[in-house]
Amino acid sequence: MHLWGQIIVNGILQGGVLGISALAFSLQWGVMDLINLAHGSFQILAAYLALTLLNSLGIDPFLSLPLIFLLFFAAGYLLQLWIINRVISANLFMTLLLTFGMDFVLANLMILLFSADYKSINTGYANASLHLAGIELPVVRLLALLFLIVLSVLLWLFLEYSRTGRAIRATAMERESARLMGIKIPAVYALTFGLGSGLAAVGGVFFGLSNTFSPAAGGPLTVGAFVVTILGGVGTSWGPLAGGLILGLLEAVGSVVFGPTYVNVITFGLLLLVLIIRPTGVLGRAAR
Amino acid sequence: MSKRVNYALFAVVVLAALLLPLTSNDYLIQVATGIAMYAALASSWNLIGGLTGYPSFGNVAFFGLGAVLAAALSVNLHWPYIDAALAAVLGSGLFGLVLGLPLLRLRGHYFSIATLALAEATMAVVTNVNFLGGGQGFSLPLLGSGKIFYYLMLGIAVLAAAGTYLIINSHFGNILLAIKSDELAAQSVGVNTVLAKSTAFALSAVLGAMVGVVYALWQSYIDPPTVFDPGITVFMLVMTLMGGAGTVAGPVLGAVIIGVLTQLAMSFSKNASSLLLGLGIMAVVLFLPRGILGVHRPAKGGERRGARPLRG
Amino acid sequence: MVRKSVKLTGLFMAVSLLLVAALAGCGSQGAKQNTSNASAADTITIGAPDAATGALANEGKLVHDGYTLWQDVVNKQGGLLVGGKRYKINLVFKDDQSKPDNDKSLTEQMITQDGIKLFLSPYASPNIFAASTVAESHKVPMIAAGGGAKKIFERGYKYIFSSYPYSGEYLGSVLDLLKGRGIKTVAFLHADDLFSQEADQGGEAYAKSHGFDVVYSAQYPSGATDLSSQLTQIAQKKADALIGTGHFEEAVQLVKQAKQMNVNFKAMAFTVGPTMPAFAQNLGKDAEGVLGASLWTPDLPYKDDVFGTAAQYAALYKQSFGTEPDYHAAMASAAAEMMGLAIQKAGSADPQKVRDALAGLGTVHLFDGSFTIEPNGSIKGLVLPVIQIQNGKAVTVWPAPFDKNIKDIPLPPWSKR
């Protein structure tokens, strides 16, 4: 096994896991200027759903993924339409507080529903890996990266070329003008949040396959999505991929060079540096 | 007239708070200490978040740094605690001032995340520096009765509230308000907004660190996950917004309400207390978007909108 | 400028007063309830802040159930026999949301409002630190079950006791076992919290003084989700054994990633993780052969009058809660049992007398083993078992004679499983 080759691969694959988790977060932020503090708990809930479907009905997570996506899409759509839209035009504290409250409710609801026990989605292939030229490629992580790339492309195509996607982009750029052009903003927001929730659920299922989770595991996921989104840049379909790869590589290499205990120093130090030097992130659009 | 009545009410509240220990109910004093602590913390957050309009998500950094520095100096260098406390407060204030300069160039969500990163980075550094206790934290000697800590926390809370009142009614306060409603306009009329913002941030840091040094002694054991818990910042924010951001009494009122509700929830419902707290926060956002003291106030400035439904 | 209207300040005062009144009312209600209980004069009330919600809810439940089992068993036997009279045990739990701050105020509340004078601790060392300061200042005894941090007992406190050995002693038995199996090089990975650091330092010192070659040692931040690069590094150092000292999710992640990275060890051992049934459930067959440093297993040959043998304890627990007990639960029951012994020895539930009785208990023999209470409140002499996951179950493989149960050390490589 080649040490550095493997470490670089580890970093890239971890980038996939981090990036797919940030996809939804980045979309919601970019379009609505909404930071969803309940993002991590949404993901954990999706992981529980996939686990329940696997255990009770024997449905493989990759088969139940479309169903979970649709369920979360619908729930997110209604949540935005009925609740979040009520405060989204107020100052940004309000949405932060609201989603923080949602996070609290979700996390504690999950304790009541699923107990505080640690779970993981343990399929036959969860810990399998491919061997390629002396390098190990864990299957689930490889799939996460693949899904991230495919979903980023699909999201880009959707936003760039579909009618609805253009309405979303127009709303993101200038809400009032979009409204004057006849775009129904509440519906666009609901759609965006629904789409985001669906994507969050996909990220959550991957997290459940690659990690152990409990109802309290949402917080770190949200913070991770924050970092990836900022590093990659808000408001671009490729941001999560770029941010995920940068963070994954940095953590893998940094943890070997300096020791794993400094990973958080590196991560958050870099985040601060990026924010101070280039707040729009690596691929981000110009600051507004 | 109204001003005089306000002073009188302020005096009555402070007097009542001062006399509370006469009940010699240690539990009540313990809860009141926690409430005074959060009232002080929320007031410190209010300086930067409420008055200046910069949504900090990392104020716990100053609280934690104050606690850790004071403990480190007194345990490792055997300084008298009062000296260690002073050094810790000054150090944290300086830390806030220096980091405020680059961070306060950011606005909105970017500022929020930068401050969150600041708090997390501070915790990560502290966890890796043995002099600062590392991941193991510090154990401090157990001191006297709970009343001392109650009066100390109360003192900081009163200082914070009085300071806020003075700032609001000063030229400095006007500058902060101007920054909140339209920073570019303030700059264009020649106001040194950078200095004003950084000063507010540093003051916020100093108050947070003061609470931290008392907290360390009060708890007698501190470790990084406890004193750098991002939840502490969230509570400062929730309390301030619930009571009314940018007001003197708002953060105090928010701290009292949340502090008491938390205690009540914990004693009544064993499993659902956190769930209820979450629902309560959501309800406040949806039904009291400007905070309790903000309800009757007319909207000020472009950014001071309350919740209003999206128009389509 | 911002003017506060009189009306608003009035509102503020009214709301505050109302809330304080509600708080005081609630408190006095609790106190009344308690006196009516106490007037029955045949009940001993013991308080326990516990983590029903929050990050520690998982372990919190085990501790909660461990305490509860002792209460239920004693009450089923007619109560605790103190000076010829039987007293019912009444445990009062309050959710600390896993936060040390809340442990302070809840302990204070239980002491001053509810009149509770005897305590069992909340879970985890930071929470015990917080709760024990209140117990100490009110001079009421608290027995800790859920944290063996040495620092807790280095403060010179007189009212804190424990059923746990020091964290630094957890790994001794594991290393003894490995020694007999030809393991020479070991790699240590540990989390950055107090417990993990103390356990790791104790383990590394023991390893070095017992002829092991420590080829790798690193600390990672609590909650790390990707340790694959560390495993890659360890593989290069050709360590025979991996010893992980951290939290449940990190232990699971290390096994998962060791398999994914095809990093083979002759043995893998963890302090927290394998002893919990969820470990084998989460990992399936990949958990096979993993060793766990435990504090108690149902196979141990100890017994006492309350629970009977260790095996009978396990049966009682399963009957009540539907799952096998792990050491968190058993050590909690043992802590509760220590409290019972001290009350019996003191002949009363007076906190000072119970404290003195605890300090003078000397060597006790419970279903979890024989140990001696030290002057600083910690315990010494408990023989720590080691478990191994075999066919999805935790099997006791240490101390002798259980070492005959050891299977597959050295472990077969992942490709041959």
UniProtKB/TrEMBL annotation, chain A:
The keyword Transmembrane applies. Keywords: Amino-acid transport, Cell membrane, Membrane, Transmembrane, Transmembrane helix, Transport. One of its GO terms (molecular function) is transmembrane transporter activity. It is found in: Cell membrane. It holds the Pfam family BPD_transp_2. GO terms for biological process: amino acid transport. Signal peptide: none annotated. It is a multi-pass membrane protein. One of its GO terms (cellular component) is plasma membrane. Its main location: membrane. The chain crosses the membrane at residues 6-27, 34-51, 63-84, 96-118, 138-159, 187-207, 213-234. The keyword Calcium does not apply. Belongs to the binding-protein-dependent transport system permease family. LivHM subfamily. This is Branched-chain amino acid ABC transporter permease. It comes from Desulfotomaculum copahuensis. The lineage of its organism: Bacteria, Bacillati, Bacillota, Clostridia, Eubacteriales.
Automatic annotation (TrEMBL), chain B:
One of its GO terms (molecular function) is branched-chain amino acid transmembrane transporter activity. The chain crosses the membrane at residues 35-53, 60-79, 85-104, 111-133, 148-168, 200-222, 234-262, 274-293. One of its GO terms (cellular component) is plasma membrane. InterPro entries: ABC_transp_permease, LivM-like. It is found in: Cell membrane. It is a multi-pass membrane protein. It comes from the Bacteria. CDD domains: TM_PBP1_LivM_like (cd06581). Keywords: Cell membrane, Membrane, Transmembrane, Transmembrane helix. PANTHER family: HIGH-AFFINITY BRANCHED-CHAIN AMINO ACID TRANSPORT PROTEIN BRAE, HIGH-AFFINITY BRANCHED-CHAIN AMINO ACID TRANSPORT SYSTEM PERMEASE. This is Branched-chain amino acid ABC transporter permease. The lineage of its organism: Bacteria, Bacillati, Bacillota, Clostridia, Eubacteriales.
